[in-house]
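Q&A log
Question type: sequence-to-structure
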Amino acid sequence: MIISASRRTDIPAFYADWFMNRVRAGYFYRLNPFNNRQVSGFSLKPEHLDAICFWTKNPRPLLPHLAELDERGLNYYFQFTLNAYDRRFEPNLPPVEERIETMIALAGRIGPERVVWRYDPVILSSATPVSWHLEQAERLADQLSESTRRLVFSFYDNYGKGQGRLHAALHGTGIFLKDITAPEQAAARDTLVRGLKDIADRHGLRIFSCSEEIDLAAVGIEHGACIDGALIQEIFGCTPSTVKDRNQRPACRCVESVDMGIYNTCRFRCSYCYANFNEAQIETNCRKHFPDSPALLGRYEGEIEIQTSLKKKKPGSVCQPSLDF
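Response status: OK
Response body:
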């Protein structure tokens, strides 16, 4: 079983203490994102896990705990998103130079093959044209090339419940967005992907696209997966599931996993993020977080079966949240 920590929020940045409490307890509760009374329990014991995939823009709060994860025999790797957008796009991140230092420190601790650099999403706008992206990607690659083996990118998609958030954030700034996937942007898109491929080649990195319908094989760019069964097998020598995750978009190539996170709980509040689609709910949700609770939000009463595999995945139990929720 693979644990995703998490597509829905930044657990290393904001919930590292909770995560470690769950590791020590050996299980966690996952809430159905559409019904918080439906709760499933999943094991975090090393004998039940193939790997944990951390998704983060700032893993620094988790770094002091890596030795304990190693001692407990847990396999893990990081999807580390590192862009160079300004505060109109990423209003609450640490300075980019500090994040670069963090990624270098992380790779120095666990090895570059376990740190995947995500230049993601690629937002084409009047403030961030193709030339800007290539300049920033080159600058970052110069500093990160010894700290990763992979560069992953995706184009900004205006989809789902989060659509319109970026447009609203940029309203009145004079910045206008362009759809890089549109046919009229084909020339710009071609320049960008060829430029990214050249940057990756010069720095000895394999480059992958993420959840893209567009076939870039002619440029030498492979379709990638974030929850990547082949990478997990390569790094850790185990044999994880090869079943595609049916809960993701059709173009996503991730294998099935269990996600620990909850939407509308990330305090980074990046203006393009699909995982925060209700701004008013973020602080309300964060007040419902208790580091000692089995669930990321709230407290739950009653017996909940702890599942140790996805082969016999069961529907969650219907539980009554305590008043804390």
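Response note: The first helix runs from residue 11 to 14.
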